[in-house]
Amino acid sequence: MTTAEPYYKVDHLFLLVGENPLPNYIAAKMLLKKGGTIYLVHSTDTASKADCIGRMLEPINVIPISLGRNEANSCCIRDKIQSPIKEVLKKHPGHTFGLNYTGGTKAMSVHGYRALFEVSGVQNPRFSYLDARSLQMLIDRDNDSPNPEPVTFKLLLQEIFDLHELHLTQDPVTYQELLETAPELAELHPELAKLHTDINLAIAWRWWCDNILKPAVKVLKKKQNKPLEWEWKSDKKIEQATVALTPDVAIRKLDESLQEYIKQPEDGKPIIEAFKKHNYKLVEELVEFYKALWIPEYVPHIERIIKVLRDKEYLGESEIEVSLKQFAEKGKFDKSKYACQWLDGLWLEHYVLSQVQEVSKKNPGLIHDSGMTFKVEDAKKEKFEFDVAFTKDYQLFALSCTTDATKPLCKSKLFEAYIRTRQLGGEQARVALVCCYNDPKQLEAELKVETEIEKEDPKIAVFGCKELDNLQVHIKGWIEDNNRYYAP
């Protein structure tokens, strides 16, 4: 016994192709009868999008319909849509037709709707729209409100990237792979997250990473027509490097530099003459250099993280400086630079992904797919990265991560993540920033004002240092707020 297909499915479905192909892809999967035909109505500017959708829909029969530069021309749109309909009706007068007007321009929607509605011989055409607010497919009804139908189609993250013809320059990491490649480090994520709920510690450790770790493992280089940039030293040099964990080492290194300097006074002159030069400017520089090496009030906070690393036996009890090679080996990193990246903040991405996975385990079916470190390159060779992302059915959720606690940088990362996420996931997409800023609600509110998003809309969320300790609760709440806010 065959099961009757839902009333809203049709034999021939017209899709208006816009800049985001995701709604078209969902509509094709949901609204077309088995063995039916998709018609992709596109302009010159969206021809590549139509080609991509067609490839993704194989082996479904797909026919592209090009409007050229006439995407606002009512006569062209009418003729292009009605011509194939008339040809089909000659052979199959009982076939059904539909139009999904989620994509395309406003002119394409209006004139496409009229073209299908007015063509002779079409019985009860189906018009539909994928609503970003309710996350439902709205099926139009004569003289009545649209009939909402749930969209249960589930998208993988890889499918979303493929729809936009984005190339992953590095395979994303799943949480299972994370556990398999570095199992010992998994126990450190929650420990560091708990410590970073203290804004003072977060600032101190960020300072250590920028001023102590980075100069030890990176070098400033100038590329042609570009400003100075930090680049990784060779892995061999990083393995040979040691990084100060306490002020003692910094003082010792300063002393060594000073001793080396005064061994060779100029032309045999007294040492004091070397310092008198330029009104004792060198002495001032040395004092500033010492202040930059260690800020005294940061020391107790840095030592709290060092204690965790020692308690977990990543560092010896008596060490005042760490061998990066030793830390890399104990953490099972393939390269020493990966160990540096982890200390510098990559641990937060690992932690966020683990929290997403905890939500998924405790709430089966809530999260469909997840991963981290999506390094992406578009057709223009422009590169960007998604830190952590997951899908709920076909809806994209992206989380940008930073251990920074300063408002300008946090706001910049959130805005960039918002733009990229909207480009990929459309109006349905949601974005969050996980950071160490101590007033996340203020940051969230500011960006909502700038992007004209309603105050209560969970389209944008910010989780600060106070939320880090139990992040999974806040992530789950964010997903549920999304469901409540957009409930029909």
TrEMBL record:
TM stretches of this protein: none
Short name of one Pfam family: Card1_endonuc
Stretches assigned to the Card1 endonuclease domain: 337-479
Any one GO MF annotation of this record: nucleic acid binding
InterPro entries, alphabetized: Card1_endonucl_dom (IPR015093), Restrct_endonuc-II-like (IPR011335), tRNA_endonuc-like_dom_sf (IPR011856)
Gene3D superfamilies linked: 3.40.1350.10, Hypothetical protein VC1899 like domain (Restriction endonuclease-like)
Lineage top rank: taxon: Bacteria
The protein's name: DUF1887 family protein
